[in-house]
Amino acid sequence: MKTYFLPLLLSIFVSLSMSAQTNNTLVYDEFSNTYHHYFSPAGYIDYIKDNQYQKYLRKNKIQSIQEESSYYNKRGKKDSFQKTSTFNRLGKTLQIKREKSLLEYQYENDSLPIYICNQWKKRKIETKITYNRNHPVLIEKYAKGKLSSSILRSFNEHGKLLYSIWIDGRMTREVRYTYDESGRKTRTLQFRNGKLKKSWIHECKEEGELASNKKELLSSVCEYREESADGSFTIFQRSIRNGKSFLLKQHFNRDTVKLSSEYFVHDTVLISSNHYNIETRTWTNQNFKKGKLTQKGIVVRDEKNRIIKSEWYNGKNELFRRESNEWSEDNRIGIRIVESGKKLKHKKRTENKFNEQGIIVQSSTFQNDRLTREHKYNYSFF
Question: Domains plus CATH for the chain?
Fold first, then answer.
């Protein structure tokens, strides 16, 4: 058995795709090691890379989308809202116009955002981004024409982030990183107003033991990998968070398909486990507390790896949520049904309609067979 030692690179940025329906984006905040929703990408625009959505727009040569959203209360009263989004040929958003707000983007070479303006009737927020070799090194946020916050970032010659300093009024937060000769991250330091608040060491000893005194650190992460002769392998991730040690084991076959995983606290107390059955394409997740099962989830995929059904049970093995999807031949969800609550008495059904090009033109949601919301889309093309 061969063992390879690797440092775990703590994610500096993570972004999830924006949808045509919303402009909320989930991004990773390196200053607090948490995820936040930002209505506009002020301050973190380089983390917002909506690649899948942009590919969809480019593939279908979509220039603009006009969306009309209608919501119905229990009495059938209807409230409607309109939104128009326009894009460049690379699928980058140029403008999102709503009844009471306007969001605009400007780019360098049609790809790198350099200016964002989000304005309402009595409020205006601007973001300006400066780059060095395509890396955002200065991000400035303005409110009412005055600088309200800024982020200063520096990269080494290999494109590795060395530090990030966020200044917001009297608050200054800073994150610094160090790397070894191979470019692997070895240490992370987090400061607030010049005082060290947290530190992470990313180096591993034999058997993946943390190369630090557990009592000296609030947080630390390391990762190592063991390979078997048949090509299968296991990744062990050890970490310390707020003084507690955690161990995540992930098992893969030779084709890098994850077969199972276990998550422990103090190496022995099981918190959660996952198991994948290749033959039935079924994924089972179990969560535990003090040795007792608290929740179980079962996800079933079809031969194209599309989720067709999922079920969730409580610790008493009582079914409290079920989801099912009906897919078209061209991999589009036509109908999605979600049942929840005691005896699954709450039922929500979403029906999607597409045009001949396979582009969605209408989405209707029903709650216990009562129409609750409806979205209609009109398009213009390049």
Answer: 207-267 (3.10.450)
